[in-house]
Amino acid sequence: MFRNNSNRLKDFDYANNGGYFITICTQNSVHIFGEIKDEKMILNDVGRMVEKWWLELSNKFNNIKLDEFTIMPNHVHGIIILVGADLRVCPNEKGEHTGSPLQEIMLMNILEM
Predict the structure, then answer these.
(1) Residues whose CB is less than 8 angstroms from the CB of residue 106 and which lie 6 or more positions away in sequence, other chains included
(2) Which of residues 7 and 30 earns the better pLDDT score?
(3) Closest alpha carbon to 58 in 89, 29, 21, 37
(4) What mean pLDDT comes out for the span 78-93?
(5) Which of these ranges, 36-40, 64-68, 98-102, has the smallest mean pLDDT?
(6) Rounded CA gap, 60 and 69, in Å?
(7) Which of 1, 16, 78, 113 would disulfide-bridge 69, Cβ 3.0–4.6 Å?
(8) CA–CA dist 100, 102 (Å, integer)
(9) What's the rounded Cα separation, in Å, for the pair 97 and 105?
(10) DSSP code for 8
(11) By the 8 A CB rule, do 43 and 33 touch?
(12) Torsion angle of C-alpha atoms 42, 44, 46, 47, degrees rounded to 10
């Protein structure tokens, strides 16, 4: 069963600069990221994908820096530091997100005309 009780501070603006400890859990606590053997976490393909994209986050979002993280069989812990840049994903000179599907769809529509 899903729990929706929040540990957030009332009236705190979580868009403020600073370090944030986050935990992301799998649905139904299913062990999908790997397993622990001899007290060591062994990532499977899904766990390695999560690790890859965690490390890529600061390249995609220019307003964050990454600190320590750990991947467990059914959850991920990490520290994300907000550094105050634009909250849009890598905006180009027009203010659009680079790699935005909307850009690609618009380009395809123009080419079809």
Answers:
(1) none
(2) 30
(3) 89
(4) 67
(5) 98-102
(6) 17
(7) 78
(8) 5
(9) 13
(10) P
(11) yes
(12) 10
Element (H, E) at 112: helix 101-112
pLDDT confidence band for 103 (50 / 70 / 90): very low
**More confidently predicted of 5 and 17:** 17
- Tokens standing for residue 3: 């729990």
C-alpha distances (whole Å) from 53 to each of 30, 37, 57 are 20, 24, 6
Token pair recorded at residue 109: 């529509």
The encoded tokens of residue 94 equal: 């027009």
Share of the chain above pLDDT 90, in %: 48
Give me the phi and psi of 97, to 5 degrees please: -75, 130
- The residue ranking higher by pLDDT, 24 or 5, is 24
With helix as H, strand as E and coil as C, how does 33-94 read? CEEEECCEEEECHHHHHHHHHHHHHHHHCCCEEEEEEEECCCEEEEEEEECCCCCCCCECCC
